[in-house]
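Field log, afternoon session.

UNIT: design team B
ACTIVITY: writing a sequence onto a fixed backbone
BACKBONE:
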């Protein structure tokens, strides 16, 4: 639904993690074909519907330092893909296969 298309999700994430004492750096970018060509291919369907245009959201957490050591003990990378609305092309899914498609954003939502 429109209320949680990619631009709104990006706005929500920024609002949730933006505070003066936050240890989370947030970067929101448009989908660029040079960087993520397959995501850009899906995103082309939004050319006439900018309210659905995709976003790349990066969250970087910097833990507080302890004992003067500014290096983390281990690095963890979490990746979540979320498709909020595929507005392009034909509906090639048969029968009731479209019923659960609203859950395509779960991977990205779990990471955030």
């Amino acid at each position: 639904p429109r209320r949680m298309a990619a631009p709104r999700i990006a706005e929500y994430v920024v609002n949730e993690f933006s505070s003066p004492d936050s240890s989370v750096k947030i970067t929101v970018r448009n989908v660029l074909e040079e960087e993520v060509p397959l995501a850009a291919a899906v995103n082309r369907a939004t050319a006439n519907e900018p309210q659905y245009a995709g976003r790349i959201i990066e969250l970087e957490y910097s833990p507080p330092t302890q004992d003067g050591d500014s290096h983390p003990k281990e690095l963890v990378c979490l990746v979540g893909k979320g498709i909020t609305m595929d507005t392009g092309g034909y509906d090639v899914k048969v029968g009731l296969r479209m019923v659960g498609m609203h859950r395509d954003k779960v991977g990205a939502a779990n990471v955030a």
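LOG NOTE: The first strand starts at residue 24 and ends at 30.
NEXT ACTIVITY: expression trials, pending approval
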